[in-house]
Amino acid sequence: MDTNILYIGRDPKMCAILHRLLNAREGWNGFTALTNAEAFEVAKAQRLSVVLLGSGITDDEERVLRGFFGTFPDLKIIQHYGGGSGLLYNEILQVVGNSHD
Amino acid sequence: MAQSVLHTANMRGHANHGWLDAHHTFSFANHYNPEMMNFGVLRVLNDDRVAGGRGFGSHPHDNMEIITIPLTGSLAHEDSMGNASVIKNGDIQVMSAGTGVYHSEYNADPDQEVNLLQIWLFPNKKNVTPRYGQLSLNLDERHNRFQQILSPNADDEGVWIHQDAWFSLGRFDAGFETAYTIRKPGNGAYFFVISGKVTVSGQQLDTRDGYGVWDAAEISFRADTDGAEVLVMDVPMQLQ
Predict the structure, then answer these.
(1) Is the separation of the CB atoms in B107 and B87 below 8 Å?
(2) I want to staple B194 with a disulfide (CB 3.0 to 4.6 A). Which of B58, B59, B134, B229 is the partner?
(3) What is the pLDDT averaged over residues B168-190?
(4) Which fold has domain B139-236?
């Protein structure tokens, strides 16, 4: 079964890049959200395995996101650092394993 | 009691894209080794060789302290903050990516390869305003001493970053012995041998080996070859 991954960040250009990078990997489906409301909509429609918190999310917004996504069993919430391809695959592989390699 | 980790040069990840020949001390991009992810907040240590005239087109970064040290050749940088510059051996460049920045990096020379170290540290504060800095260092000040090239303080020697980290470079005569003093309790020191052979805390190291030591206040150091060059990265062992 494919791994569904949601990236949440406030920069549209960054979201577009992360969307492309996530979907370039076999076995991964990438989704992006610019707002918390968009993120909640994705969560209703998809069974997510990983949520990546990107840049520009305030501490208060992060608390709301962690509160919401923390109720999903087996869902991993991780902070994405670096913006882009450098650490992205590593961050995800650390929590979902390397079964697609 | 002091603890340590050894990463020999041949343990590094390697990716050769033709125009880019990269060695990754820690897992990076498509190289993933769960045993070599980081040393404290030191997350990326890439040893990149970029062919003449080639480079990295505009790409984003966020929430990372990015330090670039050219070892040979020269590197042209442009970013979304309006900075455009060329750095060469003897310079250090720093970028706090914070809320997000786009930049490009190209070999400024059409023919000669550039060899650079690119180092990423997790920041101690997320979503800072992006900033850029660069500095030309006095190479004489690292002869038989650890020359500070980076710190957390804007008014201190070297460039500064959003992290309680201190970087030093040294070039040593064979047989020279000294000790490195950790700058802050809770920090560890990662020694990366740029050239030559050295012994750190009793561990013999060769060119491009890395050796991290923590839970120690002072770390013994000896140069085993003439002109041995070492980069020391003194970093928090815990992410704040």
Answers:
(1) no
(2) B229
(3) 98
(4) Jelly Rolls (2.60.120)
Which residue from B180, B220, B227, B173 is spatially nearest to B200, judged by alpha carbons?
B220
Does B14 contact A at CB distance below 8 Å?
Answer: no
Nearest CA to B27 out of A85, A50, A5, A23 is that of: A85
Interface predicted TM-score of the whole assembly (ipTM), two decimals = 0.89
Q: What is the CATH number of domain B13-136?
A: 2.60.120.10
- For residue range A11-32, what is the model confidence (pLDDT) as tens digits? 999 999 999 999 999 999 999 9
Q: Phi and psi of B210, rounded to 5°?
A: -125, 145
- DSSP annotation of A75 reads -
One-letter-per-residue 3-state SS of B208-240: CCEEEEECCCEEEEEECCCCEEEEEEEEECCCC
For an interface test with A, the pick among B120, B126, B127, B162 (most A C-beta atoms closer than 10 Å) comes out as B126
B206 to chain A, closest Cα gap in Å = 27
Where do the domains of chain B lie?
13-136, 139-236
Confidence grade of residue B110 (pLDDT, cut at 50, 70, 90): very high
DSSP A58: -
Structure tokens at A67: 């509160």
- Write out the DSSP string of chain B: --EEEEE-GGGSEEEE-SSEEEEESS-BTTB--TTSS-BTTEEEEEEEEE-TT-EEEEEEE-S-EEEEEEEESEEEEEETTS-EEEEETTEEEEEE-TT-EEEEEEESSSSS-EEEEEEEE--SSSSPPPEEEEEE--GGGGBTS-EEEEES-TTSSSEE-SSS-EEEEEEE-TT-EEEEEPSSTTEEEEEEEEES-EEETTEEE-TT-EEEEES-SEEEEEE-STTEEEEEEEEESS--
Q: Is A55 on the interface with B (CB under 8 A)?
A: yes
